[in-house]
Amino acid sequence: MDKVIFLDRDGVINVEKNYLHKIEDFEFVEGVFNALGYLQNLGYKLVIITNQSGIGRGYYTQEQYDILTQWLKKEFLNNHIFISEIYCCPHAPTEDCNCRKPKIGMIEQASKILDIDYKNSWIIGDKGSDIQTGLNAGISNTIQVKSGHTFDEKESKALFVVNSIKDVLNIIKS
Questions:
Q1: pLDDT by residue (tens digit) across 48-66?
Q2: Which of 10, 66, 96, 167 is catalytic?
Q3: Which of 12, 66, 87, 138 is deepest in the core (most CB within 10 A)?
Q4: Which domains does the chain have, with CATH numbers?
């Protein structure tokens, strides 16, 4: 079975910028390559699951998102990080889809290509909806990072709350 790290994109992998869709605006969170390399070396598959409502709202196109995503995959490969897949919910919050977090549609998509070991997998996000997605899918190993959206730490349902992705090295050991 595959141990998987499910990662939100904005606020976890890159600095949070509203409706980010241009390569020139993309800024990696400090320590992301080291952290993901560490997790990859522990045998985890890396999967990004990201709500991109800017597409559904008409702020940018699917094509613009795809260009950024292809660039992102190349940047990871240039740093010896293999991302198994990147799933995106392009729908506006008002659409009744199964893929928008906290629903589990993107994790269900991943389960079609990976034999997910839910007990030993993790979800890392910066919003409560990211954490709730993991819980809804049966992933109890959850980390909420403070490098993205602000939230009340006391209200977090995450198992761990850390400053950023680089702090997972202190939590995930095998």
A1: 999 999 999 999 999 999 9
A2: 10
A3: 12
A4: 7-99+106-116+130-170 (3.40.50.1000)
DSSP 3-state assignment of 164?
coil
State the burial class of residue 68 (Cβ atoms within 10 Å of its Cβ: 0-12, 13-18, 19+). Answer: buried
The pLDDT tens digits for 89-101 are 999 999 999 999 9
Burial, 63: exposed, middle or buried (Cβ in 10 Å; 0-12, 13-18, 19+)?
exposed
pTM given for the model: 0.96
| Residue 132 to residue 146: CA distance in whole angstroms | 16
Torsion angle, alpha carbons of 88, 100, 128, 52, to 10: 40
Token pair recorded at residue 101: 């977090």
8 is catalytic: yes
Distances (CA, A) of 132 to 17, 30, 74, 100, 111: 22, 25, 30, 12, 18
Q: Is 126 a catalytic residue?
A: no
How far is it, in rounded angstroms, from Cα 7 to Cα 40? 13
